[in-house]
Amino acid sequence: MSATRAEPGLGLPSLPARIAEPGEAITMDELRLASRNHAMPLEALRHELTPAGLHYLLIHYDIPEAEPGHWRLRLGGAVDRPVELSLAELRARPRVTHTVTLECAGNGRALLDPRPLSQPWLDGGVGTAEWTGTPLAPLLREAGLDPAAVEVCFTGADHGVERGVEQTYARSLPLAEALREDALLADTMNGAPLPPQHGAPLRLVVPGWYGMAQVKWLTEVTVLTEPFTGFQQVVAYRFKQEAEDPGEPVTRIGPRALMVPPGFPDFMSRVRVCERTAQLLTGRAWSGRPPVTAVEVSTDGGLSWQPAALGPAADTYAWRPWHHPWHPEVPGTYRLMVRASDASGRAQPAGPDWNRQGMGNNGVQVVDVVVR
Amino acid sequence: MSATRAEPGLGLPSLPARIAEPGEAITMDELRLASRNHAMPLEALRHELTPAGLHYLLIHYDIPEAEPGHWRLRLGGAVDRPVELSLAELRARPRVTHTVTLECAGNGRALLDPRPLSQPWLDGGVGTAEWTGTPLAPLLREAGLDPAAVEVCFTGADHGVERGVEQTYARSLPLAEALREDALLADTMNGAPLPPQHGAPLRLVVPGWYGMAQVKWLTEVTVLTEPFTGFQQVVAYRFKQEAEDPGEPVTRIGPRALMVPPGFPDFMSRVRVCERTAQLLTGRAWSGRPPVTAVEVSTDGGLSWQPAALGPAADTYAWRPWHHPWHPEVPGTYRLMVRASDASGRAQPAGPDWNRQGMGNNGVQVVDVVVR
Question: How far apart are CA B262 and CA B285, in angstroms?
């Protein structure tokens, strides 16, 4: 262990957040995170439901060990009747299924310049699954909400240190979001019990929000009469320009379209090779403020854009398929791009909107293709 | 796309293999590979069978699109009666299940110095699954092997470019290995249909060999009367010191033990924090020349070693669990290490055995822990 890790005042092997130096390559710390927290390979965009093991993962600390038979969810805080529920009790309640696209708030971070050092996402920090569980709102209402309640905090079983702060992962939602009919306590993913890495045996799913809100390995639901001030709420998941800036909270997913890279890849560079024949470019597009209303494709590096054909989403907060024909007639290098806009009027920016924690970078995807 | 990618003679976006410069950090090409080809998070060593999505993945090109209903396996070459089989026909044959630990031949590559540039594995390129399918040997015998047969070549559906060579992934086995009773054409992993990333709908599983031999998306089995000379056989998966050196083939998995990192991690550095209490260090050990006969643990950076207690393997080529008590009584930084040896007399080397393609680095795992 490098001596520079130790912070005498903390006694913990943590360092403050850092931005890469100009031209600084990927660090071993970033590689360590990337080897654990994998992206969805973009060819998996062909699946409406991302198969287990291809859905993106972001795990702050370790995957905690869970014994489903002994798991308890404690619901308390500013309620009249705190309650503790076993998995069997939760499963005996009404059940619903929603197909939801989840995306990491840091997706696109490693494409920023300068690059904030954290989990180094390129563009595959996304996936879509069918989540099944019991709605949260009736549980909150049955517990008797304090009229002064403003937020609901969700605590997982994962424990670690981050920038010198020892913590058990926790995030809150505004009360209105926690009371949405489609916010679930999910124990099932794509029809099977949650895999360990997706929060087994129980997680929150709140459609439309970036992944940091979808608390995994859920053990506590706490109703609050003051806004939550935990690390992940007021420090980590913020849009900010300066370290001292309190910033703006990261909330709902921005619009994004991705394409299945056409042709076949070079192993090392992942640059694509295509034949000089008619291609059908395909992909999916999503937003946390649905629906996606338009997807446009450029095959000339952004000089011109054509509308793609959009298919239906499986559910309100699930991605929509799109396709666009392309027939390159001249050999050479082509830069393909795709961009989405949504019902709120938001559109993907041409380039990244830089912020110092690398949040919400939905700059357009670029796929370089050699046509031969 | 960088102009340096183009090789005029090839027309393909490939470059020759390269070794990192002294001190050169991780490249974007390596990050791109790491974000697709994920490792098993080491806390998943707690599972005897690695859950879907936590098993390591190495996919040279793209995951090919497979329509199980139309999939055909062609068995031909130096046989009397070439045959083409549907999945239904394969599934109607005798079925067996083996629990097998698979490991990427490049596991440990990014820990080499200097570092060969390729998929940048740290130490998690491993996983264990129950593979179910039909034995290969009876199929070969029924087809009528040419007495001059020396090898069997396996071809997948994945297609790409590698160091300027366009190819469909293919690897061969010596005839005796292909005729082993435990070599399977597998369509089932941990009791479920193969996930796309593990070779759906059909793959080879040949226990004991590194992952490059376990051909996924299997479409052709070809009996050969001369050794196979494809890229993955004679160029890529070789132990060599110089680029021009033909080198030695990569075959069976070397012995390796890994531990579940104790305590909890720092998010960014992954360095561990432990309490000053009794711990039980646990992990698993395996070899392609089983059984693992000994596992030893050091808690002082390799100055001294103690034997760990070894449990039974689920199957001949599955990893064995081990455990070792540890009670750190003085706060400070500890370097934990673990090493295995096997029935063939092979043992993990203290440091990496360097080779220019970064193959088979089974140097001992190092886990740095801050005890407070």
Answer: 17
